[in-house]
Amino acid sequence: MSFLKKNNSISITVYPHTEIFIRNKVKRVKNGKISILLKNGVYLCRYKCPGKPSFTRLLFLNNLKDEISFDYRLLQDMSEHHYNVKVHNPERLPFEPETLKIPGAHVHLGVQLGEGPSTSLGSYSIKLRSFAISKYEVTNKQFSTFVQSTGYVTDAEQSGGGFSTDGRGHWQWLPSAQWRHPFLKNRISLPDDHPVVMVSWDDAMAYCKWLSNMTNRNYRLPKEAEWEYAARGEDHRLFPWTRSFNGDFHNYCNHGKSHKKSLGRGSIHDGYLLTSPVNAFPRGVSPFGVWDMLGNVKEWMEDDFIYYDEKKNSQHANQKEEQYGSITIHGIPKTLRGTGFYGDPQGYFLNAIARNSHVHKARFSALGFRLVEEL
Ligand SMILES: [Ca+2]
Ligand SMILES: [Ca+2]
Asked: Looking at the structure, do residues 188 and 264 belong to the same domain, yes or no?
């Protein structure tokens, strides 16, 4: 087998009677040669040939000027070396985040007086349709596939960096910060299985839009009602795992005020100064099996940030500005949920009801996202 990539087309030479599946395109080849026109992007190709082993590989098309050819064996070796792809569900692409279905329900959300910060006060009922939410925060690996496929440049890369931390309570604006190396005093790329950070709300939305186009599914950021229900379950628990704090169940602050006092049974030393792998805390999953709803990274919601009373009237947030030293960022305040690795258990925000905001162009080294798939 050989196959050539040139501009937006792929030309494939195969054994006779091979079937090739590329997204929704299925080609049955009788005599060995076909040409398929495709838009730029990442494609999952499945090859089936009588008498030969079937295999599935990713194909990147990005207006390559030079022809690239592979033989069957080289294609297998390269894919295994670079991508280490396992297709658990043949309906889901290898780079597509795993999701969990949350059944629709009439839910009661929010809190009463005394349970959280003033921005979180109030309660409301809402009817949620069934949806699927990503089991983990979106990872560096998943985001890098998007960047590799599209050449996307994040807001931090375009507009002078972002607000960064060393994990020891020191924060400052770092002009060189971006998702590949977001932390102070650390330009080493983050591991693939850690959540992507230093991405703005716009960057997260661009990822969702790309993924939707790639998969013919409808991905977007979670609405905060969806997120809260997925985190708290039907019994309105304050933490995803139970009603009481447990320091062993999530990645939160190793420093600051919480360093001197621990709450609940757990240690304040969770093993991670900065981000952690998205599957590091199995005991912290929500009733629906969603990981890291508290801790690791704080997460962007789709919603504008307004008080619950204003939500009832479907109001929108007004433009505001945020100041980071000499840097000013303008934007619409968007809701954030689930405090990240810097979350202090002595503060108000380390629970599943607290909410706060940053403007949509803001980016932090502790701020990432997960996504929802509309069903
Ligand atoms: Ca930690
Ligand atoms: Ca989180």
From this structure: yes
